[in-house]
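User: Some background: our group keeps a shared notebook of sequences we're curious about, and every so often someone picks one and asks for a predicted structure to add to the entry. Today it's my turn. The entry only has the sequence so far, pasted here. Could you supply the structure so I can complete it?
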Amino acid sequence: MTAQTAHTAPSTTTDHGTRRKVLWGAQILLAAFLLIASGLPKLVGQADAVETFTQIGWGQWFRYVTGIVEVAGAIGLLIPRLAGLAATGLIGLMAGAILTQILVLEPAWSAMPAAFAVVFATIAWDRRNETRELLHSLKH
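Assistant: Of course. Here's the predicted structure to add to the notebook entry:
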């Protein structure tokens, strides 16, 4: 092993460890946001959530579905084995939120779910090995 190789390996491990810690912080913050500020208000029928889903025009059942997906995704983000899969699902939710903001509600607000989607994509990519192992274990 060369001196350069020996030096590169620990740096790569350190970079991965640092990235994982930063992403854990993001996962915790996003999970808290999804639970407290987004998912639970939809499930308990907070007035602004009811009004927003009235504007969307798909009915209040869609508010409940969206709230359940947000709460489930938030919980999944906090479970290492499920974090990548949860982040992947939340990318889909954010894609729907982006389209809804652009087409129905307020286009300027589409930047927030777009930014969340980028973070979820980063989490999903970082957790791809755990997701692969999880999906493989479900086959057997």
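Suggested note for the entry: Residues 16-139 form one domain. The first helix runs from residue 3 to 44.
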